[in-house]
């Protein structure tokens, strides 16, 4: 585990630099494209699986009032049962750097020049895995799902003993 964290340290540092620069000038949004693509692709794929009917996917930054929207997925069938899984799908992205690091440091390893380029691809994943405020707003449409899961868990714990 320590090897993985050491391997990911440059990516985490780069993520901080990218976040700093992207807030200063829109040009640096280019450094976030890999993360934006994964974030929106997660919404799109989970939307397909859960029946949310994704209609379009965009990863190009657009000015929306006082802030920038880095990407968007238009969903045509958000319901109580698919809102949370689809909206919170980007949380799965955090697995990408850790799975890659586990594969990369397995056995004997050493940093190579290719690891620098890999760090630039992994850094945006640390910035893009957290759902946006709009994603959290959509996820709250699944509150009936939370009740069903809570009741199910309660029944399971009563009868499992």
Quick description:
Helix content is about 60%, strand content about 10%. The protein is mainly alpha-helical and about 160 residues long.
Characterization of this structure:
With 161 residues, the chain is mainly alpha-helical. It has one domain (2-159). The protein is built from 7 helices and 4 strands, in the order H-H-E-E-E-E-H-H-H-H-H. It has helices at residues 2-24, 33-50, 83-87, 95-105, 113-128, 133-139, 143-159, and strands at residues 54-58, 62-64, 67-69, 72-75. Helix 1 crosses helix 4 (95-105) and helix 1 (2-24) crosses helix 5. The mean pLDDT is 86.
Give the topology.
Blueprint: H1 2-24, H2 33-50, E1 54-58, E2 62-64, E3 67-69, E4 72-75, H3 83-87, H4 95-105, H5 113-128, H6 133-139, H7 143-159
Antiparallel strand pairs: 1-4, 2-3
Can you list the strand order of the major beta sheet? 1-4
User: How many structural units, i.e. domains?
Assistant: 1
Report the uncertain regions: none
**Could you tell me the mean pLDDT?**
86
Write down the overall geometry. globular
Structural class: mainly alpha
- The beta-strand count equals 4
Rg, nearest Å? 19 Å
Percent of residues in helical segments? Answer: 55-70%
Number of helices in the DSSP assignment = 7
Taken as a percent bin, the fraction of beta residues is 5-15%
The helix-strand sequence is HHEEEEHHHHH
The major β-sheet equals: 2 strands, antiparallel
Distance between the termini: 35 Å
